[in-house]
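Hi,

Apologies if this is the wrong queue. I'm a grad student, and the batch job for Mismatch-specific DNA-glycosylase from Paenibacillus zeisoli produced an output file that my downstream script rejects. I'm not sure whether the problem is my script or the file. Here is the sequence I used:
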Amino acid sequence: MNEVADHLDYGLQIVFIGFNPSLRSGEVGHHYANPRNNFWRILHKSGLTPRLYEAAEDEELLKLGYGFTNIVARPTRGVEDITREEYREGREILKSKLEQFRPQIACFVGKGVYTELTRRTKVDWGLQPDSFVEGIHEFVAPSSSGLVRMPMEEIVEIYRRLKEFVSPEGG
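Support response: The file is valid. Your script probably expects a header line. Output copied below for reference.
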């Protein structure tokens, strides 16, 4: 199965960081392509995107100042299929990408993604008080997986806080 290409560039407002691509994303070559994943709906409902985008348009979000990457590049059925070695390698690669591209905000799509990178155990939603990668703001948002039990409106509200942080009025 193919890896899903990162969408990274210099000068991005936000880079969204997931665990790894789903099997569906690996098949079609686009981020958050599983139809049960709520990522694109969350971005739209929170106001981060002006319209509802589809996974096939993921590269278009570079024009909005948003990029995509993962801590592990290999598509799997679930995070339980990621090995300790893949996480170890992924942490080093991800840290290098963030240091190279230096987005304004690294948004971790799920607490587990952030704890895998930082090895921190206590994490709250939202902006983190101490950056793991110096000079980059780090924001932890709920996973967009359809398996998440948190009500959609609560998830959207946390992403709205991210929007307020990047908008000229709020940040």
